[in-house]
Design a protein that fits this description.
Elements (H helix, E strand, L loop, with lengths): L11 E4 L1 H17 L7 E7 L3 H8 L6 E9 L12 E4 L9 E9 L3 H13 L4 E9 L12 E5 L5 E2 L15 E3 L3
Parallel strand pairs: 2-3, 2-5, 5-6, 6-7
Antiparallel strand pairs: 1-9, 3-4, 8-9
Bound molecules: inosinic acid and magnesium ion.
Inosinic acid binds next to strand 5, helix 3 and strand 8.
């Protein structure tokens, strides 16, 4: 028995697997070029949504990297941002004077990105802090913030796949899709 009230047959593809993988080639190159070659990069994967994006991105890096994982929840089971950020696990090593890359799945209202950026600047004093988001819903922004890099700008529609979920489902899809109204 599934708790799911959406049918995958109704899902429309917004960004194909191939388009995502092509974009990662460009993104990874641009990101690496922004850090000195001889320095480690601490890659911070923001769970759960960034799991696919972050995994595929780091495979393309030739720098020495360390991977860290933090977990934040903002959506609950709804398709609208709740403005209610829940920090579930922010455990990190000392990142003072380190090169840090925060990897997010999507920037919607911008509240999560703002929270994370402030947190890192206040608590960790990295040498260099860059932020990458696969998707960017510029039109849904409530606080003024832009990532240093992003893959695709999308309209203000709720998307799933490639790590992004609806009620915990659809994270395993290799593409990004949406349910038309
Ligand atoms: P923000 O704080 O409103 O920018 O929301 C950021 C988080 O909400 C993202 O990291 C996602 O986990 C989630 N989110 C925002 N938009 C979507 C969407 O269209 N589909 C699935 N999750 C989303
Ligand atoms: Mg997220």
């Amino acid at each position: 028995m599934t708790m799911l009230d959406k049918d995958i047959a109704d899902l429309k593809v917004l960004i194909t697997e191939d388009e995502i993988q092509q974009k990662l080639n460009i993104l990874s190159r641009n990101i690496e070029n922004s850090f000195s070659t001889d320095e480690d990069i601490y890659v911070i994967c923001v769970l759960k949504g960034s799991v696919m994006f972050c995994s595929d991105l780091v495979k393309r890096f030739s720098h020495n990297i360390q991977m860290e994982f933090i977990r934040i929840s903002s959506y609950g089971n709804e398709t609208k941002s709740t403005n209610n950020l829940q920090a579930i696990d922010l455990t990190l090593p000392n990142l003072d004077d380190k090169n840090v890359l925060i990897v997010e799945d999507i920037i919607d209202t911008g509240l999560t990105a703002r929270f994370l950026t402030d947190l890192f600047k206040i608590k960790h004093h990295p040498k260099k802090l860059l932020f990458v988001s696969l998707l960017n819903k510029k039109c849904a922004r409530q606080v003024e913030i832009e990532p240093d890099f992003y893959g695709f700008e999308i309209d203000d529609k709720f998307v799933v796949g490639y790590g992004l979920d609806y009620k915990g489902y659809f994270r395993n899809l290799p593409y990004i899709g949406y349910f038309p109204n």
